[in-house]
Amino acid sequence: MNYEQFKHEQKNIFLVDMRQELNHYFSELTDTAIKKYLRLHKKIGIIINKKGYSQGGICPKCWYIPQCDKCSVSISYHKQQNGEMMGLCHICKTQYPYFTHCPQCHAEGFSMFWVGTQQLAEMIQQQYHSFPTIIETETVNSPNKIKKCFDAIKSQSPEIIIGTSLLAQPLYFYPFDLVIFINADVGLNIPDYTANENNFLLLYETFQKHQTKNFIIQTFNPEQYSIRYACKLDHQGFYQKENTFRQKLWYPPFGELCILLYKDEIEDRLYTKVNKLYQELLYLAEKYQFSNLEIYTTPPLIYKTFGKYRYNIILKWENLRNFMEIVVSKLPIQERGFKFHRDAESIV
Predict the structure, then answer these.
(1) For a disulfide at 71, which of 91, 124, 183, 327, Cβ 3.0-4.6 Å?
(2) Under DSSP, is residue 205 helix (H, G, I), strand (E, B) or coil?
(3) Over the stretch 105-115, which tens digit does the pLDDT of each residue have?
């Protein structure tokens, strides 16, 4: 089969290269393992970092993707208890109807992309005749819901539990015999210098905290260092590699990072305000001879939320604090409506 095994004293971690698999949801190894563990009445935990039914919909003819009116994100879809599909923005929680026809070109066959927890549960029911329990934010976001969810698990004893990254924390009353990551690459798609670290920690801490012996990690990037060092359980090796990358580009902790965020309901006014401050910052950097200082503008990962457009001015340097003291004394940043993140831990 198509996998690489990492053997440890009490754990076996199987890394599957999904580029060589015909089925991009269940690899041959995953399929064999699920069938075996179900036959032996063992407990399986499956982690997929997408909640609901699907991440969004797309027209196969014109490639139109419906987005939230208030936020620049695709409308996600959730299946309700009555079986009907509901569109939902995961940012502002606005609800939308489910489209069977493309709203733009009116073509039939509007399809979905990025499988979520609900759709994965349906696949498992159809393929393995098992009825998984789903754990995601909405089912455990209050003490009463947590108690209700855990009581149901104790009484029903499901063979498979599907969860988002919440399942990285073990259910101590319900230990798994096998843990499967459907896609270990999701966190790497975020354009941020912390993406590798966050992805490594999710995998590494899951391996360390769960008392499970066997893990299956499905990935389209089997050579990616955050994934490989996690499978090796090599915390020190990862940070040696990660720090080399950060030190070269002056990212924290080797440099300082400051983000000035501006929001506005009017897009043109947003550009005007951001550009004016950007030019003033360039002037101050030149005047006070901060020649190596990096200053640039960029939109955040999500450009619009709750009806407001957003834009960042990012400043990065090994000794940024001295320059920012000058900026604060010379420019009324907060009075202009900019949100100040002096020691920013992320650029998204």
Answers:
(1) 91
(2) helix
(3) 888 877 888 88
